[in-house]
Each structure stands twice: as C-alpha cells, then as structure tokens.
Amino acid sequence: MRTRDTNKEEIVKQKAIEMIVSQGVEGFGMNRLAKECGVSVATLYIYYSDKEDLIRKIGIEIGRNFFDKMLDGFSSEMSFKDGLRNQWENRIYFMLHFTLEATCFELLKHSSYGDAIVEEITGDFKQTMSQFMLSSIEKKELIPVTFEVFWSIAYGSLYSLLELHREGKSMSGKPFKFNDDLKNEAFNLVLKALTP
What we know:
Distance between the termini: 63 Å
Mean pLDDT: 93
Shape: globular
Low-confidence stretches: none
Helix content: over 70%
Order of helices and strands: HHHHHHHHHH
Number of helices: 10
Number of strands: 0
C-alpha cells in the first residue's frame, strides 16, 4: 500500500480549491484534478475515497478554519458593539487573506454538499452566536429580531462590499477598493439599524 505524502496532499487540496472556484462544483472531476496535480488518479484515492469525500473534507476544513477565525478574540458576553465589530474584523481578515478558500466555501455551502458540511462544523459557533444575541437583547443593546433578519442586516452589507472589492469594481463599473472609511460608514449604519 502506498503511503501518504503530506506535501502532495496539500497540493491536491489547493488545486482542488482552485478548480472548484474556477469550474464550479459540477465541473470538478477527479481525472482533471489528477492531471492538474501531475499525479495519477490512483494517487488521489490514497487521500480520498471518492470525489464526494474529497469535496466534503475540503469544505469541512475550510469551514472549520473560517469558524475558528470568527471566534478569535470573541466572547458571547461582549457588548453588542464590540462583539459585532470583532465579527466584522474577523470576517474581513478571512475574506481578504483567504479569498480563494472563502469563495470555495461559499460555492460548497450552496451546493448539494452544503448541508452536510455546515452541519459538521457550526455547532460551537451557532451556540456562541445565539448566546451573544440573547445576551445583547437582555442588556437592551440589540433590538429583538429573528436570526435571519439579524444576519442579513449585520453582515449583508459587509459581504456585498467585500464582493465588490474582490471584483475590483462597483456596480456602476468604477474601480472599487474596500477601505476603513467604507467599513466604518457601513458598520455605523448597521449598528444604528440594530440597536435601540
């Protein structure tokens, strides 16, 4: 039996992420991946049992890294303003420093693999964020709002701005670059919308 080569395994993961982002989940295949990595298809099966196993494991790894970053320096007992600011900074960091991985995770989240991936990784994060919301409501720092509405107001504008940054242009086609002034303007409007 052939042994695992961790360097080769990392190359396979990185190339798979690039291919999923450029070709989509449906266009991704093990034969193409092997060719892109310069290995035999049999080599891929040392690391993964099949295409579904590879996609699921990559999604789980990226997701764990993302949610670990979201909890970096965060506590459910923080003030609403400080906690939301922390979440914004953590999300900005991940999206700007791991753009390819973040894009891949979004694609996988909205694919047929999404539910299994998300279910595997969000337990602690969901619990911490629920406690944060309830604590903020109890302290009268956050208006009572359903989770879905909270999420769309709290992070929707941030993700839209980061997407424009990734594309490098605004909706009107003008060059666009995310910066602190835009971040602060959007954050203050979000805070105003969610606080009593």
